[in-house]
Batch of 2 targets.
Target 1
Amino acid sequence: MNAIQDNLKAVGERIEMALGRAGRAPGAARLLAVSKTFPAAAVQEAYAAGQRCFGENRVQELAAKAPALPSDCEWHLIGHLQQNKVRQALGYAAWIHSVDTPALLERIQLLADEVGAAPKLLLEVNVSGEESKFGFAPDAVEAALAGMPAGPAACVGLMTVAPMGADASALRGVFGGLRQLRDRLQSRLGLSLPELSMGMSSDLEVAIAEGATIVRVGTAIFGHR
Ligand SMILES: *Cc1c(COP(=O)(O)O)cnc(C)c1O
């Protein structure tokens, strides 16, 4: 086995252990392999080991890499998306985790309709309130969902990025906060928001304990960037 295969196996085991400790069903959290900055050949190795879901931060890199991989790869855009890149993003991304303004939501619906795409969307929430972060303020998410323009894209949940270097209790606060926000939105708006995208290489166990359904892991699979 090569390093990427070994790493995928190890991360898969970490996920299943964390699910077990949380009393959650096996497979209840999926692994998104974050391949940003790594070449298509590295993604190909992960593909050969059975991985199918890949995350990229930048539309340009996604557009360069995706065509080099088999068509049954599922690409997720996880980085900030500029309005003028939406059309290109929709050509490759089955999921967009980084929807962070009502205007972007509107633009995605408009262009998805135009190009015949039906992406799954997650609203990015800045739970920790860091100024440097993209994402909706927690108290702005309800209005964004209630006012979501009709169209082919479906909002299926929420995403957050924890602060760098946060300790376990701060991480629990952030991840648990996203889950509680999701629960509140579901009951207030009568919506189904099953997906919680949270947790990375260093904190996926805490995220899974707090209900993550998608963990976004780069370094622990592909190595340091
Ligand atoms: C890079 C990145 C990740 C993966 O981070 P690692 O620490 O390398 O696992 C996850 N989410 C987002 C939004 C990222 O930009």
Note: The chain has one domain: 3-222.
Target 2
Amino acid sequence: MKDIKKLGINSTCVHVGEVEDTQFKGAVSPIYMSTSYAFDNVPIKRYPRYYNTPNQEMLCKKIAALEKTEAGLIFSSGMAAISSAMLTFLKKGDHVIVQQVIYGGTYNFIVSEFDKYGIYYSFTTSDKIEDFRPLIKKNTKVIYIETPSNPLLGITDMKAIGALAKEHQITTMIDNTFASPINQNPAEFGIDIILHSATKYMGGHSDISAGAIAASEQHIAEIWKTAINFGGNLSDQTVWLLERSLKTLNLRVKEQTKNALFIAEYLENHSDIDRVYYPGLKSHPQHTIAKKQMNGFGAMLSFELKEGIDAMVFQNYLTLIKPSMSLAGLESTTVSPTQTTHALLTETQRLERGIKEGLIRFSVGIEEPEDLIADLEQAIVKAKK
Ligand SMILES: *Cc1c(COP(=O)(O)O)cnc(C)c1O
């Protein structure tokens, strides 16, 4: 293959990391299900939990190419990737600075597991760079961010975080799930470790559980040493499905992103909607930062229904858009954070985080935006009655 760095994004999605079918010359990667390989006198033998079966090894190259890093690694879930990465770079006595608003599962992992390992953590009070700096201590080893964040699509300045961390020899990690590698490549802004729930945009069809990490060869080698002990590798059957999904990553995410901007602009001018949260809108407080670091503004948005329109009633009237817990599939889905992801918090805690009763998180799919808007409209009309 020609120099993969010179390939266009769709060519990268389709061709980088294919497993060549040398035996039959088939058009797609064969699946190697073997858990046992000849000894062959190589330093590391092939074995599923060593993350190096033919399908795993090749798909890692596609992940790296998409994130423009030297290397990649794939896991059985986003949390397997996130936990393996964190516990590689944090040991007893270390300290990690974590952005206040992060994915709920990551938050739970930190607050319920880190005490057991003697790892200290501090949460910032916002996604602003000024709130990270004062938290740096002598033993701070990692800064962990997520941008855009869930559910209010806050934006963290990656370049500023990268520079601050380098000054103090701190490793930076980002959860890049919401943007996907199509809309944002954190390595270009000095972020070290890029994490993905591949269950979301990378899988894209709401039928795969997987995770991914992209980073330098050296960082991936370190993570690998820890990851083989935790054993969160992905089955080769699913590796193959993920490879298939990634072939259309750019086509899907581009279309979804285009739809999201169209719908965000429409909802912003709607008399029954109080507020729209989308980094692509000029009204978004960090729109300028988003413009600097994102190729597109993503396909996730949130909006607040006007008082008097019940979030659950509204969602029950939707016919095309599915109320659903997960996100990033090619079908559009909504969720009411108050009732689901943030249900365990008190109302005061929710309001502190800016999450109001009428907030709806909208994962925009590939359906025609006119159809999506028509569905939202009729549900608003019915929910108002
Ligand atoms: C879903 C999700 C995760 C966790 O991924 P799993 O594949 O469910 O383990 C992490 N971060 C973000 C932003 C997510 O949306």
Note: The domain at 250-384 is CATH 3.90.1150.10 (Aspartate Aminotransferase, domain 1).
